[in-house]
């Protein structure tokens, strides 16, 4: 069955860095777009970044542009999110999600599988 397992979260200081990973299994990873979404306490789900199946295109929400980098390794079935210049407002539960096709989208119903989520806390 499809599994998405996030890792790499934790506590970081403002201005610091973290790298999230999402290990995928149970499907042909290279055929599907993948995305990262987050949910901060008391707020709705926010789409953070997406990447096409062949790495040909990426998306970033405005608040993370220039600080976060999404990437994927289709030989390792793994999705990454490099987060630099972290801010307190980046504190959230981060999820990786599998799209229904090769192109990313920023609509919840375009994704059919989600990881369990991993906490990122930015605080001094």
Low-pLDDT stretches: none
Span between N and C termini? 40 Å
Supply the number of helical segments. Answer: 0
User: In this structure, how is the largest beta sheet organized?
Assistant: 7 strands, mixed
- Series of secondary-structure elements, N-terminal to C-terminal: EEEEEEEEEEE
Query: How would you classify the helix and strand content by structural class?
Result: mainly beta
Beta-strand percent range:
over 45%
The total of beta strands comes to: 11
Give the helix level as a range of percent: under 10%
Shape: globular
Q: Overall pLDDT, averaged?
A: 96
Can you put this structure into words, describing what you see?
- The protein is mainly beta.
- It contains no helices and eleven strands.
- β5 (45-51) and β6 (58-60) form a beta hairpin.
- The radius of gyration is 13 Å and the shape is globular.
- The termini are far apart.
Which tags fit this structure?
single chain; 124 residues; mainly beta; 7-stranded mixed beta sheet; 4-stranded antiparallel beta sheet; 11 strands; 49% strand
């Amino acid at each position: 069955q499809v599994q998405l397992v996030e890792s790499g979260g934790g506590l970081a200081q403002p201005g610091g860095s973290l790298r999230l990973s999402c290990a995928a299994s149970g499907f042909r990873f290279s055929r599907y777009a993948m995305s990262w979404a987050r949910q901060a306490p008391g707020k709705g789900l926010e789409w953070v970044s997406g990447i096409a199946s062949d790495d040909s295109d990426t998306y970033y929400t405005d608040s993370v542009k220039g600080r976060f980098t999404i990437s994927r390794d289709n030989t390792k079935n793994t999705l990454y999110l490099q987060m630099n210049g972290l801010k307190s407002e980046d504190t959230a539960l981060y999820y990786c999600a599998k799209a229904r096709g090769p192109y990313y989208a920023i609509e919840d119903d375009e994704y059919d599988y989600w990881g369990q989520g991993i906490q990122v806390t930015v605080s001094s």
